[in-house]
Request: fold
Amino acid sequence: MNLKFIAAPRFGRLEQITSWLREENEDSGCGFYCNITTINKAFADKELVCVTSKNKAIGFAVFTRHRYTARIDIAEICPSHCESGVGRFLVENCIEMFAKRNIQVVDLECAPRSSESFWHNMGFYRVPEEALKSYSQYNKPIRMFRPTCQIQNQKSLHEKSDNSIELFDCRTWECEGRKPRWSWPIFTLKGTEVLDKPIIHPAHRDWCVRWKKEDKIIKTSEVKHFCNDSSKWGEFLIITQLPTVS
Reply:
């Protein structure tokens, strides 16, 4: 189909997208034309990408970003090109673009909820229920995430390491006597405090994270204070380097 991914489309592409979104809305009442103000703003902020075929924009994605994370807010393919691999092409190129921009994890909300299987097939995982505590019990969205790089796996706990990171789904004063909800072994590059694989996991900024070495607690703090720039992580625990301990 001779698809092309455009990371910085010109205004003419936005006009093409707007045209078929409007037609879709008039024909079926479906699609994202109701979000056209958001789409226009994303274009102005250079946070809109698209896929073209035969010089026509047939798919697009809108995103927002923090320092190390990005969120796909909207992604849609022109109805006449659905089920043709365009969606996979769009997402794969978005992930590649994000990785090149040093974004380490991408997340999104499945809307409609029926899109979960597509995102799962694209390598996205469900955000744990514990990380959705800010939503009401009856209105929790399906949130999914995908790291853009290889990460440290919790299943590697059998590997021998003196260092570990523990994450609790509660505040620091509530974790006394409790076992961590998640934990990872730590392996650093020789002679440095840089992890050979980053730890990336959905987390509330107020949750407790703990660094242990040889069963001794080195540091305990809230996620938002564990590293100096954690305020720019969005809704994730991201550790690429062990923090300085005074």
Summary: The radius of gyration is 21 Å. The mean pLDDT is 90. The helical segments are 11-28, 36-44, 86-100, 116-121, 223-226. The chain has two domains: 3-147, 154-241.
